[in-house]
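Annual report, structural modelling task.

Input specification for the beta-D-fucofuranose complex:
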Amino acid sequence: MRKIAIMVLAVILLGLLGGCAGKPADPENRAIVVGFSQLGAESSWRMANTKSVEAAAKQYGFGLMMENANQKQEKQIDAIRSFIAYRVDVIVFSPIVETGWDNVLNEAKQANIPVILVDRMIESENADSLYTAIVGADFYAEGRRAGEYLIRKADAEKMDHVRIAEISGTPDSTPMRDRQRGFQDAIREDSRFEIIDSISGDFLRSKGEECMTYLLEKYGKDGIDVIYSHNDSMTLGVLDILEKNGIRPAKDIILITVDGEKEAVEALKAGRINCVVQCSPDLGDEVMKLVQDLKAGKEIPRVTHPDEGAFSDLDDLTDPRVEGF
Ligand code: GYE
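The model returned the following structure:
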C-alpha cells in the first residue's frame, strides 16, 4: 500500500515536472499513466534505454510509474501486479526472459489494461492475446550481421579454419536466443567456421571477464580465433582480460560485439574491436507514440523494429555516422 502511495506521488510530481521542461506536454495526455517495468541496469544499453523511456514519457506529458527489477523476473511480476492494482492506462515492460509471463499478463488482460512490450519478446501459446504491440530490435538480423561480417573478414584475411567462442547473453532472453540463431544461420553453410564453445556472460561486464579468463585457460590464446560476444559490456570485460594477458585484441583474436555504446565504438576506432553490430536503445519515443495512438483509439502496428546496421574495420570508420550512444 505504502509503495503504491509513493508511486502515485511520484506520478503526480513527474506530471508537474513534465509540464515545465522542453516542449510543452500535451494537456490531453496529462491523465494518462504508463506503468513501466524495466528489467535491470546491467549495461550501458539498458541505462540508455531507461533514459529514453523516461524522456519520452515526459515529452508526451504522461505520468510514468517506473520499477526496476534488478534482473529478477519475480520483481517484474510484482511490478506488473502493482500497476494493475493502481489501474494504469498502459503497461510497458521489457521481459527479462521469454517464458513465465502467462499468469500475470492474463491478469492485465482481465483488468483490460493493454500491454506493450519493449525491447524483448515473450514466448507463450497465447502470446498473441497477451500483448498489443512490441517495439524492439530485430535480434536475429543483428546475429546475421555479425556472421556476415565474419565471412567478409575471413575472406579478407584468407583464413581457412576459424575457431569461434561465443559469449552469450542472459539465457532464455530474446536477444540471447536470436543473436545466437542469426549468427549460426549466417555461417552454417561455410565449412571454414567452427563454434568451439558457447558460454553465458549474462550481459554483464564482470561476467565477460570471467568468461574470457575461462576460455583462455581452456583453449589458450592460440586456440581461439574469434570471440562473438552478445553485448558490449561483456566485450569490454573481454578486452580487459586480453590486454592484461598481453594478447592484442582485434589482432590476435577477432572481436565481434553487439550494441554500439560509446566505449565500444571508441575501441573499434582505436583498432581494439573488429566489428560492432548496432542495437538501438532509443525506443522510448516510439513506445509513447503507440501509447498515445492506442488511447486515441487508433490501430497500432504490432511489431516495430528500429533501423540498425553494423560498423567494422572493413568499413570507413571516419564516417561521422559511426557513433556510439
Ligand atoms: O544488447 C544488452 C542488454 O535486450 C537489447 O540487453 C537488449 C540487450 C542489450 O543488457 O546490452
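The chain has eleven helices and twelve strands.
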